[in-house]
Amino acid sequence: MSSQSGSQTPTAQATKPQSRLNSVFKHLWSMHWWMAGCYLLLFVGGVWMVRMPEDTGALQGNAYTLHKSIGALTMALLTWRIFILQRVWWRKYTRRSPKLTGEWIRTFLLHTAIYVFMLAVPLSGFFLSNSYQSGNVPFFWLTLPDIFPENAAVVELARSLHFWMAYTFLGFIVLHAIDQQKYVRSLWRRSIQALKKVPFS
Fold first, then answer.
1. Could you give the C-alpha distances from 48 to 138, 156, 166, in angstroms and in order?
2. pLDDT, tens digit, for every residue of 106-125?
3. Which of 110, 115, 163, 165 ranks highest by number of CB atoms within 10 Å?
4. How far apart are CA 40 and CA 34, in angstroms?
5. Rounded to whole angstroms, how far apart are CA atoms 119 and 17?
6. What pTM value is reported for the model?
C-alpha cells in the first residue's frame, strides 16, 4: 500500500475551491431572489399604502409598519450580500483581471447603479420617517434607532426624494430585465410550464 494513499489528489484539491465558489454563487443567487421579492413587496405595498383612505386607521398603520420593516430588512440583506460579493470578486479577480470590454463595463455600471439604489431607496425612507418623527422606523416588534434627526422643515423634501429615488430605481430594474431578457424569457417559460403541471380542482 502506498504511503500517500490517504492524501488528496491534485484534482480533489482543485475541486474543493471550485465547489466552495459554486456554493457562494448559489447563496448570492438565493439572496438575489429573496431581495427581489422584498423590493416587489415594497413597490406594490408602497403604492397601495399611500392610496389608502385616511379613515382606514389601524389598517394603514399596519401597512406602514410592514413597509418600513421590509425596508429595514432589505438594508440588512444588502449589507450581507455585499460582504459575500466582495469575497466572490476577491477569489475571481485576484489571479486574473477582468477583460475590460464594452459589455463588461456596461454591465458593471448597470449593476453598480442598482446596488446604489438598493441602498439609497430605503435610506431615503429612513430620512422621511425620521424627519417626520423620532423613533418612527419599526422593525416588526422593535423600534430602530434614528439615523437622521427629526426636522419638520425637510419632510416634504424627504418625501419627494423617496418618491423619485424609488421610481428611478424601478427604471434601472426594467433596464436590468431588458439586459437579461433571454434569461427572463426562459424563466417565464419554465414558470408557465410548471403552472400547467399543477392540478387544479
1. 19, 20, 14
2. 888 888 999 999 999 999 99
3. 165
4. 10
5. 31
6. 0.74
| CATH number of the 16-184 domain | 1.20.950
At 6, phi and psi to the nearest 5? -90, -5
In Å, how far from its chain's centre is CA 113?
12
Q: How far apart are CA 168 and CA 152, in angstroms?
A: 25
Supply 160's cell numbers. Answer: 419627494
Domain chopping of the chain, boundaries:
16-184
Model confidence over 87-110: pLDDT tens digits?
Answer: 777 666 666 766 778 777 888 888
**∠25-29-30 over CA atoms, to 5°?**
120
C-alpha cell, 186: 426562459
Q: Where are the alpha helices (DSSP H) in the chain?
A: 10-50, 58-93, 102-132, 155-179, 181-197
> Which residue carries 423617496 as its cell?
162
- What is the three-class DSSP state of 152? helix
In angstroms, the CA 146 to CA 133 distance is: 9
